[in-house]
Specification:
With 107 residues, this protein is an all-beta fold. The protein is 0% helix and 66% strand. It contains no helices and eight strands.
């Protein structure tokens, strides 16, 4: 059974030259548990610039899988100490990404 939740997203991107970019927003969504994993599903808000995107997060004990569907398509895995690759597909074009998660906290 899905539970309605308020999701608060805070993201900080650090650049080599020392600057940082921070993004924060909230969205209504659902949370449910299946086979030991939690699933969070929400529609990205217009303030994040991605109004036509549904995002799902699969939260496992040691990793998180982000799946974005709609105007943006992406599947990205975040796992501490592991480099994962993905393709970020937008109406403007595609971008190949590699993410190395240095630190991750799942509570």
């Amino acid at each position: 059974m899905a539970k309605e939740v308020l999701i608060q997203i805070a993201s900080t991107q650090s650049y080599e030259e020392g600057s940082e970019e921070r993004l924060e927003f909230s969205a209504a969504g659902t949370l449910h548990k299946r086979e030991g994993s939690y699933y969070i599903v929400y529609r990205d808000s217009a303030t994040a610039g991605t109004a036509e995107v549904t995002t799902s997060l699969k939260v496992e004990p040691a990793k998180v899988t982000l799946n974005r569907m709609g105007a943006i398509d992406q599947k990205q895995i975040f796992e501490q100490g592991v480099r994962h690759s993905s393709t970020y597909v937008t109406p403007q074009g595609s971008l190949f990404l590699q993410v190395l998660t240095e630190e991750m906290k799942i509570d």
